[in-house]
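Private note to self, pasted from the team thread so I don't lose it. Backbone tokens:
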């Protein structure tokens, strides 16, 4: 079973592909941070993120797409733009027949860090214990996406 896990964003979007085989530790097949320039129009930035996620979905053929639910921040423009990214990702998944699952930040911290109050360092350490990661993780966004994938496995024991 494979999951394409996404920490949605348009400036920085964390993506990870995790695989689980019966009786084995989850394995990280791929992770990255899709970055777009703030000098680029939003619609082009959205296209870059959607195109890369489409490429990953077609290459890795995941059984599910999991992503973080939107939470409200003080910057309404940012929230609206992230909501648009999420909509594009939901559409691409459904067009490819991939079921979509969404998790709150609290669910992710609890599943990936052992506590709803876990900080980024605690979560990163726990992810290395839970998932076979054989590469250097360069960006927090990658860890966030991996954590979304771990949350999916915790909620959906296939």
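Design output:
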């Amino acid at each position: 079973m494979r999951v394409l896990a996404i920490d949605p964003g348009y400036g920085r979007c964390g993506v990870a592909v995790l695989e689980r085989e019966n009786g084995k530790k989850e394995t990280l097949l791929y992770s990255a941070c899709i970055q777009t320039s703030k000098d680029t129009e939003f619609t082009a930035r959205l296209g870059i993120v959607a195109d890369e996620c489409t490429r990953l979905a077609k290459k890795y053929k995941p059984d599910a797409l999991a992503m973080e639910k939107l939470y409200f921040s003080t910057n309404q423009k940012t929230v609206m733009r992230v909501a648009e990214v999420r909509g594009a990702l939901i559409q691409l998944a459904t067009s490819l027949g991939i079921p979509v699952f969404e998790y709150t930040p609290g669910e992710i911290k609890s599943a990936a860090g052992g506590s709803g109050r876990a900080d980024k360092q605690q979560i990163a350490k726990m992810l290395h214990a839970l998932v076979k990661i054989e590469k250097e993780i360069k960006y927090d966004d990658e860890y966030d996406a991996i954590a979304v994938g771990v949350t999916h496995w915790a909620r959906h024991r296939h």
